[in-house]
Amino acid sequence: MPTLPFQTLYFEDLKVGMRETLRKTVENEDVIGFAELSGDHNPIHLSEHFARKTRFGERIVHGLYTASLISAVIGMRLPGPGAVYISQTLNFRGPVKIGDVIDVSVEVAELTPKGRRVRLLCECRVDGKLVLDGEGVLSVPPSPDKPAPS
What we know:
Layout: E1 19-25, H1 28-38, H2 43-46, H3 48-52, H4 63-76, E2 84-88, E3 91-92, E4 101-112, E5 117-126, E6 129-139
Antiparallel strand pairs: 1-4, 2-6, 3-6, 4-5, 5-6
């Protein structure tokens, strides 16, 4: 995956409704690399022979690989470096297959000054079809130029 140009937004920079999207084509090498990294060598992800016998009829991408792309948007674009996950919910709505183009979006849904918490709506779509959604809660650093809210 090409390196995303990053932007750093501090808590004070954020507004409800702000949105960022990443588009990523899933390559065979991504699936193999994720299997190596995670230790999840389930043949539904790696074996055409095995996957043909499943309800999907072909290999599918690890669900957590798809979810990890949400982290790329959060860590690099909205809010960017310095943001730290508190929690993330994930609802897997459909399969992602090798060669699919995934549109990964996060949108600021709520800002809580106490603790500088941000709730994000997260979704992944393939050809406009929702394949994953959920909510992330983050801690976002304050601007170095402004005092943190109490």
